[in-house]
Amino acid sequence: MAGGARSARHRHAAQRFWQLSDTDLDDLLALTGEADRVELKLVVPVAAHEATCAALGIEFTRARALRVFYLDTPERALHRNGVVARVRSIAGRADDAVVKLRPVVPAEVPPRLRRSRNFIVEIDGMPGRYVCSGALRARLDAADVDRAMARRRALHRLFTPPQLRLLATRLPARLNVDDLAVFGPVDARRVKIIPTGHDRALLAERWTYPDGSRILELSTRCRPAEALRVAGRTADVLRRHGVDLSGPQQTKTRTTLDFFAGELTGPRR
What we know:
Blueprint: H1 2-18, H2 22-32, E1 37-44, H3 49-56, E2 64-72, H4 77-80, E3 83-90, E4 96-101, H5 111-115, E5 119-126, E6 129-139, H6 144-149, H7 161-168, E7 181-193, E8 202-208, E9 214-222, H8 227-240, H9 252-261
């Protein structure tokens, strides 16, 4: 009985973050059994950026700088086909590249890919929504991304052979990676904080677009078995700091593709 009551309390607390119907929450919890980790994300309303940073002690002045780029067709065919190709230039560290399937059904991932140590099945969750993703990651050398964006290096060289094979399954006919358009850059800053009252770090990311508009996202990762407890604790801590969990939510990927889509007239040559 005590265990059941504790589980019910965790579920009730978690709903303050997830804001899902009981059926959807049950589906989410069932899916966690097939995932490697869960990432909780919250996009803070623009009007609350300054207050949220002040309340949580977020300071981006000395935060690590990144430049983020997505690759897709001008019509965003990859995104419509459930795949994301992203590369990052990271100050003071190796660049990186990821090919992400979203959504993905874990049981349908080819066994060889599922066994790869570079492939992670992750549930990305925001208030009111969640999606299961499969991400194949690779580390690059420093300045690889900058060279490619300056057109001194072919785009396909930013990805490993397994990543290229994964992309090929979703590319439109007669296109290859070097034909894709570049969506970016976005200037990003990220810093880890541990809010008062929390038992884990939150990652604060601020993305600034060329027109000066910004996204502020807070996130934390946990093991699937911890999802309910961490969601409930995170919601309670954020609410005690005055952070609004009810604002509109949209992924950074979708926001970036939408922003740059109007600037593209055709694939990169």
